[in-house]
Amino acid sequence: MEWRCAGLGWPGGGPVLRWAGGRCSALAYGRVIGFRAVGERRCVGARGNPCPLRAVVPARATQARCPECARLDRAFSVAADGVPDDPRPYRVYLAWFGAGLLKVGITAEERGAVRLLEQGAVAFCWLGRGPLMAARRTEELLRAALGVPDRVPYARKRAVRGALPGWAERARELEGLYRRAVVLEGWAEALERVEFEAVDHSAAFGLGEGGQVVSGLGERARGAADGVVREVVDGGVLAGRLVAAAGPDLHLAVADGRVLVVDTRVLVGWELAGVDAGPGTEVTVPVEALVSAGGGSEQDGLF
């Protein structure tokens, strides 16, 4: 049986690894996991359709799609305004990733907070709800008027995750920006403002108050990490104890004492075979240094 990775998801508020064909494996903090990449990384296709060529895709790409499948996927993307007549209600939100690092965005109302979990938002609040294009116009207004982006590099999210302030400060920063947003003139008339309520994801991500990992590493692992895995290779092994997760990232405590962030977007398209993840199992994939809090680039992936 082929177990080809389809990515990390948050369908029930907790992390699961998805596999081609619809299978899922729930992930529990404190659990030891291990796998080895096998063969070549293959295109996952687009919009539920397999890639007709089963094309090989680059190991470092954050999307496991060949150029043709990527174009097809983008053509029907809400983010690219590919479906402006979508009849579903949408919500505008503020997402908080760390002190001073927020973004504005939209998501289909039926998805609830899943979109925020997928992006690694440690906290968030809703701003408004209404039709898609009204939500999009208001998102643009807020981005320009408040000076907050609609995209944030994952590298910056990882850099601030290890030094998170407490819940009171998170909620206060969200509320301050919310109050500025709802009094702005120019909101789309069809968009209804939503009452303020800050939502915390620290428990879902395995992070405690102040950002420390609560899955057994104590003060040693305060949400930060010693390196990041943004590429795997044929035969490369990843193994360790899962201590936290956020967005597409898994935080693994590995055999040599380091905590590594595994960007699971680069696992998508690989066949993964289970390995014995005992105390001496070494990581044999490339590991990079984390960028500073002010770093990050578009090549890292933006959401």
Shape: globular
Question: Termini distance?
Answer: 33 Å
- Work out the radius of gyration: 19 Å
| Portion in beta strands | 15-25%
Major sheet characteristics: 6 strands, mixed
- Order of strands across the widest beta sheet? 10-13-12-11-4-14
Mean pLDDT: 90
Specify the structural class. alpha+beta
* Count of alpha/pi helices: 6
Kindly state the percentage of residues in helix.
10-25%
Number of strands: 14
Order of helices and strands: EEEEHEEHEHHHEEHEEEEE
Low-confidence residue ranges = none
Question: Can I get a quick summary?
Answer:
The protein has 303 residues and is an alpha+beta fold. The chain is built from 6 helices and 14 strands.
